[in-house]
Each structure stands twice: as C-alpha cells, then as structure tokens.
UniProtKB/TrEMBL annotation:
<feature type="compositionally biased region" description="Basic and acidic residues">
    <location>
        <begin position="260"/>
        <end position="271"/>
    </location>
</feature>
<keyword id="KW-0863">Zinc-finger</keyword>
<feature type="region of interest" description="Disordered">
    <location>
        <begin position="250"/>
        <end position="289"/>
    </location>
</feature>
<dbReference type="GO" id="GO:0008270">
    <property type="term" value="F:zinc ion binding"/>
</dbReference>
<dbReference type="Pfam" id="PF13920">
    <property type="entry name" value="zf-C3HC4_3"/>
</dbReference>
<keyword id="KW-0479">Metal-binding</keyword>
<keyword id="KW-0862">Zinc</keyword>
<dbReference type="InterPro" id="IPR013083">
    <property type="entry name" value="Znf_RING/FYVE/PHD"/>
</dbReference>
<feature type="region of interest" description="Disordered">
    <location>
        <begin position="327"/>
        <end position="374"/>
    </location>
</feature>
<feature type="domain" description="RING-type">
    <location>
        <begin position="30"/>
        <end position="70"/>
    </location>
</feature>
<dbReference type="InterPro" id="IPR017907">
    <property type="entry name" value="Znf_RING_CS"/>
</dbReference>
<dbReference type="InterPro" id="IPR001841">
    <property type="entry name" value="Znf_RING"/>
</dbReference>
<protein>
    <recommendedName>
        <fullName>RING-type domain-containing protein</fullName>
    </recommendedName>
</protein>
C-alpha cells in the first residue's frame, strides 16, 4: 500500500496530501449509484472518472469499461486521490481574496456587466457568511454602498458613453450637412454681391431720377409762370381787340352817318343839276373822296393799330382803279400790295401793258428766290448793266 501510494503521488503531482480525517469527513457523490461516500472510498481511472469501490467491483464483474467515456478499464490502474480539502474558514478567506483581487482590477474602463457580476458575487458571499462574525458587517455595508452607488454610477457612465457615441454620429451628420450648406452658401454669397452692386447702381439711378424730377418741377414752375404771363398777355390782347372792335364800330357808325350825308348830298346835287357846272364838279370831287374813305374803312382789318387818317387824297389825281377804292393809308397795304407812286413815261407804261397782255414781264415786280436773288434778268440803271440770276 505504501509503495503504490508513492507512485500515485508522483503521477498526480498537483494533488496535495492532506490529513486523513478531512479526507474521511469530506463526501463525494458516486455517478453510478448516486450515493455519498467519503473521498477515500473512491477510486479514479486514467480517463479521469472515479466511482465508489462497490460500483467499481460491479463494473469489473461484468464489462470493464468506463460508463462515462467507454474506455477499457484495468483494475491495476484504479487509484485513490489525495486532495487538500480546505476548511470552511480557509474557503471563505480564499473567496474574499478573489473578490478583493477582482475589485482591485476594476476601473473606469470595466464593462458594466462585469461590475454587475462582481456585485452579485459579493452579495452572494456576504449572504453566505451572514449571521456570523462582526468582521463582515463592514463588508456588508460596503456591498450595500456598491449596490446603491457604484453600479448606478457605472450604469450611468455606460449610458453616457452610448449617448456620446450617438452624439458623435449626429455630429458627423451635422458636419456633413454643414459642409453641404457651406457649398450652397458660396453661390448665394456671389449672388448677394451681385445684388449689392445692382442696389448701388439702382440707388445712383434713383438719385439721378430725383435730380431730373427736381429739374422738371422747376421747369414746370417756370412754364407755369410763363403760361400765366402768356394768359395775361392774351387777356390784354383780347381787351385790346375789344377796344379796337369798339373803335371800328364807332368808325362804321361814322361811315354810315357819312353815307347818309352823301345820300342827302346826292339828292341835293340832283336837285341842283340845273346850276352852273363849276359848282357841280366841286361837289362831285368831295363825293368821290368821301366814298373812297368809306370803302377803305370797310376793307380794313381788326388789328389795325394806327388811326385811320386818309392821306392827301384830295391833292392827288383821282384813282383809275376799277372799283375806285384807294389804299393809300399808312400801315395798310391794299389787297394787291403797295403800289409805286413812280410816274413812268408814257412809252414804258404802254410797253408794260402790251407785255402783260402777251404774258410777258420784264422783271417788275421783282421775283426773288429764297435767298433773295432775282429769278429772271433784271435791268438796273442804264441799259448796259444787267443782273442775271445765278444758275
Ligand atoms: Zn457507487
Ligand atoms: Zn471514464
């Protein structure tokens, strides 16, 4: 027994021999008969499986194969295990050490799940040792503190980390959007610059337009003043016209009264036909002159300005005009224009009369072009000097 136990110790070097008492008090469950037996009543095979001695005898009496992994078993390979089973105090101390090591490794980078698991382990361990020593009361308090403070803090930290991730993603989206917005803003800025320059131009044009409008209003004021003056002048002219009309009416009345007088004189002359001829001739001269005056008044225009003063008609020979009307008032041209008072020799007048009957005129009256030059040959001075039209 002593030799075989030495061999088995060397085979299972990691198994530490402990006192027999512990090995006899500590129980294991047989996987075949499911009963609890002390550790020393078990035997193990190289496949790792071990059974109680009664069940091993049963296996070798039928089919020597492991009921777990079906490996062929040999009786000489069956051996006892010597394991160091700790006391409950030692077990608790070891658990505490494990927990302390686990907490010492925990920091801010630890996952929430591992922190929660550590909390659960701590809680279970404290419950296991509850109702015992005072040394664990502070540990219990620490567990409560851990549950109340640290786990929520870690949970919050993890939520915040998730939130930060979400915010980072949103920030990336926002940055992308911002880049897009910046690219859209650039054309708008150009547009804005154009619109500003247009605005400047429009303002300049507006100022110009305001200046023009002011000029136009001043011009309008001037024109209105001029219009008022013109209206005043028209008014004055109308008044003057009225005055002339009245004057003309007066003259017409005078002429009418003179006509009546002439009629009376005619009658008188008819009565006195039997009287000497010298007297008769004188009265006829007077009659003729007065008649011509009347006809001249009838022919004169409204805007006659000078007083109607007959010139020395009595000193002149009587006119040979067809209707016997004389137009010798100052500033009063007759219908055919002013006539010359020149008395040409008889031969010239005869010649002109002959020419006019034949449709010919020798330059009298002068016919001029727009620049005042004669249109046909004109004789001036002696017969040798001729002034011909420029062709
Ligand atoms: Zn058994
Ligand atoms: Zn086995």
């Amino acid at each position: 027994m002593s030799k075989s136990s030495t061999t088995q110790r060397s085979t299972f070097a990691n198994i530490v021999t402990t006192d027999v008492h512990t090995m006899n008090t500590h129980l294991l469950r047989c996987q075949i008969c499911l009963n609890l037996h002390p550790v020393l009543q078990f035997k193990f095979f190289p496949c790792g499986h071990g059974f109680c001695t009664a069940c091993i005898e049963n296996i070798f009496s039928h089919n020597p194969k492991c009921p777990h992994c079906r490996v062929t078993l040999r009786r000489r390979e069956a051996h006892v295990v010597y394991i160091d089973i700790p006391s409950p105090e030692e077990e608790r101390a070891a658990k505490v050490e494990t927990l302390v090591e686990g907490f010492a490794q925990m920091d801010r980078n630890s996952k929430l799940i591992s922190v929660e698991n550590a909390g659960k382990k701590l809680n279970a361990f404290v419950k296991e040792v509850e109702g015992g020593q005072d040394t664990y009361s502070s540990l219990l308090q620490a567990v409560e503190d851990f549950k109340e403070r640290i786990i929520p803090a870690f949970r919050k930290a993890e939520e915040q980390a998730k939130e930060i991730e979400t915010l980072k993603k949103k920030l990336e989206v926002c940055q992308h959007d911002l880049a897009g917005s910046v690219s859209r803003v650039k054309p708008l800025e150009k547009e804005l610059g154009k619109m500003r320059s247009n605005l400047c131009q429009v303002e300049q044009e507006r100022d110009q337009a305001i200046g023009l409008a002011e000029q136009a209003s001043q011009e309008t004021i001037r024109l209105r003043q001029r219009l008022a003056r013109t209206e005043q002048e028209v008014h004055d002219l109308q008044a003057e016209t009225k005055r002339y009309k009245e004057h003309l009416l007066q003259q017409a009345n005078i002429a009418r009264s003179q006509n009546k007088k002439i009629e009376r004189l005619k009658k008188d002359s008819n009565k006195s036909k039997a009287q000497p001829t010298q007297e008769n001739a004188r009265s006829e001269v007077v009659l003729e002159s007065e008649k011509s005056v009347t006809q001249s008044y009838d022919a004169c225009e409204v805007d006659l300005e000078m007083p109607l003063t007959p010139s020395s008609s009595l000193e002149r020979p009587l006119s040979t005009h067809a209707n016997n009307v004389r137009h010798d008032f100052e500033a009063m041209p007759p219908p055919g224009g002013f006539r010359s008072d020149w008395q040409l020799p008889d031969k010239f007048s005869k010649k002109r009369k002959r020419d006019s009957e034949n449709g010919r005129t020798d330059g009298f009256p002068l016919s001029l072009d727009t620049k005042g030059r004669p249109l046909r040959t004109v004789q001036l001075g002696t017969r040798r000097t001729l002034r011909a039209p420029l062709r």
